[in-house]
Amino acid sequence: MLIPCPYCGERGADEFTVIGAADPMRPEPDAPMEAWVEYVHVRDNAFGPHRELWHHVHGCRQWLVVTRDTRTHAVHGAEAARR
Amino acid sequence: MGHYSLFSLLKNALTGNRHWTPAWRFPEPKARYDTVIVGGGGHGLSTAYYLAKEHGITNVAVVEKGYLGSGNVGRNTTIIRSNYLMPANTHFYEHSLKLWEGLEQDINYNAMVSQRGVLNLCHSDGQRDAYARRGNAMRLAGVDAELLDREQVRAMVPGLNMDNARFPIKGGLLQRRGGTVRHDAVAWGYARAADRRGVDLLQNTEVIGIRVEGGRVRGVETTRGFIAANRVGLACAGNTSRVAAMAGLRLPIESHVLQAFVSEGVKPMIDTVVTFGAGHFYVSQSDKGGLVFGGDIDGYNSYAQRGGMPIVRHVMEEALQLFPAMSRLRYLRQWGGIMDMSMDGSPIIDRTPIDGLFLNGGWCYGGFKATPASGWCFAHTIATGEPHRLNAGFRLDRFGTGRLVDEKGAGAQPNLH
After folding, report:
1. Predicted complex ipTM exceeds 0.90
2. Topology (CATH) of A2-80
3. With a CB-CB cutoff of 8 Å, which residues 16-55 of chain A face chain B?
């Protein structure tokens, strides 16, 4: 599996670590407990395209949001995780 | 479909093996069942069997989208053990091991249960202390455990590389009652035993919807029509999130791919199960002679039943550092299965917020050894509406209440469990 790093070009997936779903957003500190349980534990576990956080740990050390199909492992793209 | 015995074997041998009958029926779906189990793998089939045997509930259907045992029950490395630290896990998996010990008589099927021992190697003083602690916890719970020193390990497993410069072997934690089981036979044996008690096994019947009315489950929509049921139990392994979503549930589960490997057959080389303590690697030898081994999950979400080359290489490197003689072996085949990785690394066997809908999932890669106790506890939960003492730690709401069962202490990071 090749990850198209926007800084380094296409690199093998073994240069990266992956942490999981990119879309859950950290709630405000005073958010209700349900919002924190949702953020920490509950996942869509997408069957198909999935936005996820990859870290180019053995490369440029940048965090990326990779869109990848969980049915086929086809990588549709990667962008910097900075917002 | 008679009773299997030495007598039936002789009788059929003397009559040219022309009178064997199929091991189970291929029934048409009925319009209504008391209970429908979704998923015809090890856990679903054992649930159906124990519903019939322990609770007298025989108006049961097991609905399977492919063929029986087509998922992870035939894709694992066949290891059974109960060498856990956390109390919820220790007692649950010990119950499972006890059921394994009597399984073949119980279901009248040869599952080749082989208690050849499971040896966890340690490679540092700190790791030996951790193993001593775990072994003590096991013995306090009535589970067998022995701490071996370096020379005992060397004598027990002659092929090991004891003196790797970085990860020398310092000893090991041995559970002699652990071992291996012929995994497909577990699915077939439970299927046949459930069928003999009247359970309908509906193969090639995919669930495409779960009907819920007024907060109560009414049945399942399938590719062969609607099947009404008062109670529906989900045992869908890697597809748990997808099936639960049909009832509007979102779960603390991610699906990941785990690979396993078999080498060409060789003469007896490893007569136990050995696990590497400085990485994640486990190996045993099948009765055909092939070495059966595996390692970590690939680490990314996946529903594809295949993994990538980096893990293949990683597993091979671990194999060679542990057993240098394996460098001469060719590996025969490799495959992937989809693991329902829960957020704390422990399973869920519980009711759900929907009346009559029950959940069995989050098995990570500990599902095979749990097969008997999983079905036993899930059957109890479905039949009585409440978890048994043995699965009381595996509630779905523990992720909200903080009562996590995190054996590894890795936190809510499924690819680290």
Report:
1. yes
2. Folate-binding fold (3.30.2270)
3. 17-21, 33-34, 37, 40-47, 50, 52
